[in-house]
Amino acid sequence: MWKNQTLITEFILLGFPVSPEIQIFLFVLFSLFYAVTLLGNGIILGLICLDSHLHIPMYYFLSHLAIVDMSYASNNVPKMLVNLLNKGRGISFAPCIMQIFLYLAFANVECLILVVMSYDRYVAICHPLRYTVIMSWRLCITLTIISWALSFLLALVHVILILRLPFCGPREVNHFFCEILSVLKLACADTRLNHLVIFAACVFVLVGPLCLILISYMRILYAILRIQSGEGRKKAFSTCSSHLCVVGLFYGSAIIMYMTPKTSHPEEQQKILSLFYSLFNPMLNPLIYSLRNAEVKGALRRVLGKKNQSQNM
């Protein structure tokens, strides 16, 4: 099996079957989106580090989400941009497997971090008097370590199962990066175990966390409706609606991609779905949190105000 696997040392990423003019347009467009992704998440991360008002659990988790989004996009988009300009779209076997590993790991981290963020909002709104006791820094750090470690462990399981397969041709991956389902189609062996593990992992990191998030927000909604102050109700809705927007975008596209029948989504539609949660979702996250969150906008004004004062001096 290992001998057969070495027969293919390089895959060809087919990418988007469009004309050269459209490829240049997509290169410019996706480059802009990628720059906005890095800039937006970088600003969020910088504000959280620089402003002491944001040194609370909610923004601690948000900083991890920003790191994941930048890493997630950087794993897939640069290679896609290079392939839009080059005729040779090859990727060696080892980098392809590494791309699969990081893609799955960062996706898993985002799923689990979103769950942790929903629990944080649940405690803040439903148990405000006990918030600082329950959401201690020790618990926050423990939850993030578990999220990262478990995510990379799950991704490693998928990679190990892929490495047991022989790849002896064809070598054209009908995608713009080494997406796991597209690569498995090229294996010269039975991949039912791989697909079974993928489905089980989706139940664990998609369906399970989504159910926990929905339960948390049902409790949150009930608690919000009981708030007497109109201003307090508005602030709670604003904070939670931002998180729900991110959850809906990410989980919706991922569940459609990996947990619906394959025949319902042609390969070109799968590329668009992958593009959505590989590039669009990481780009939208900082915009959603910054435009809909008064504390983040306040932190930005304070940081810019300090910078102006230092320049005037």
What does the model show?
The structure is a single chain. The chain is an all-alpha fold and 313 residues long. Helices cover 77% and strands 3% of the residues. It has eleven helices and three strands, in the order αβααβαααβααααα. The protein has a three-stranded mixed sheet with strand order 2-1-3. It starts with a helix and ends with a helix. The model is unreliable at 1-6 (pLDDT under 50).
Short structural description:
By secondary structure, the protein is mainly α.
Q: What keyword list fits this structure?
A:
mainly alpha, 313 residues, 77% helix
Q: What is the distance, rounded to the nearest whole angstrom, between the alpha carbons of the first and last residues? A: 69 Å
Query: Helical stretch count?
Result: 11
Radius of gyration: 21 Å
Rounded mean pLDDT score: 84
Described by strand count, sense and barrel closure, the largest sheet is:
3 strands, mixed
- In terms of DSSP E residues, the strand content is under 5%
Q: Secondary-structure element sequence?
A: HEHHEHHHEHHHHH
How many β strands by DSSP? 3
Strand arrangement, largest sheet?
Answer: 2-1-3
How much helix, percentage-wise, in residues? over 70%
Catalogue the unreliable spans: 1-6
